[in-house]
Structure prediction request, 93 residues.
Amino acid sequence: SGEEECPICTEPYDSGRHTQALLNCGHVLCSGCLHAIMDTAGAAEIGRVRCPMCRQKTPMLEWEICKLQEELLLLHDQPAPAPPPALAMPPAL
Ligand SMILES: [Zn+2]
Ligand SMILES: [Zn+2]
Prediction:
């Protein structure tokens, strides 16, 4: 065991926030941690992710970043609040 979890946050991989993300160096981490790394990266490292394990840099294409952001946005998206209950009174005829 231990192979199927993110080495950074130790959460098991899934198809949501902890989707496996493969870096150029061959290390794998979850998309949530990948985002955390990108969020804390300085302006000089925009478009690159430095592997937290071996510090090798992986260039991130813009579309990849956008895709990840969309995925996370979807995960953060709260369902719309339920509409107020309709008036139970039928029209009187
Ligand atoms: Zn993780
Ligand atoms: Zn690495």
Observations:
- The radius of gyration is 20 Å.
- DSSP finds two helices and four strands in the chain.
- The first strand starts at residue 20 and ends at 22.
- The mean pLDDT is 81.
